[in-house]
Write a structure and sequence with these properties.
60% helix, mainly alpha, 4 helices
């Protein structure tokens, strides 16, 4: 019994069974295997298609992000304008309430009667009209009669 020892840090080159099978294969099977390996490579047309698809996707995503930024800016603008509107409404309400509180109705009545000669309407001067259809306005179909 003979023992073979290998000394050193390198291993012997072993025979590769897959390689031996390839080399021993008939020619038409070798060509078919080679065609399969070529089929796995990318052709120029496929590479161009993928590049175009990536470019198109990038352009669409850029457009989408720009659109989102525009919408965000518009929402902020609307929010700012709403805040201004609320402030203006509040200021307007305060000014109106201040003006109403400063009115003296008795003084207005005194000036209207004393300086302008206005009087209260008498019973014969008041004429009522029926609107007929429940509308919010009255149609004048004939001249208004004098109160004389």
């Amino acid at each position: 019994m003979e023992k073979n020892y290998v000394y050193g840090n390198t291993a012997r080159k072993l025979n590769n069974p897959a390689r031996q099978r390839r080399e021993n294969m008939p020619l038409h099977l070798q060509q078919r295997a080679q065609a399969k390996r070529r089929a796995h490579r990318m052709s120029f047309g496929y590479l161009a298609f993928l590049s175009l698809a990536v470019l198109t996707t990038g352009i669409i995503l850029t457009w989408y992000i720009t659109l989102q930024a525009d919408i965000t800016a518009s929402v902020k603008s609307v929010s700012t304008l709403e805040a201004q509107l609320n402030t203006l409404k509040q200021d307007n309400d305060e000014a109106y309430n201040k003006a109403i509180s400063n009115l003296d109705l008795e003084e207005i009545k005194r000036i209207a009667i004393g300086e302008y000669g206005m009087t209260y309407a008498t019973e014969g001067q008041i004429i009522t009209y029926s609107d007929g259809g429940g509308n919010d306005y009255v149609r004048q179909l004939a001249p208004i009669p004098d109160g004389n």
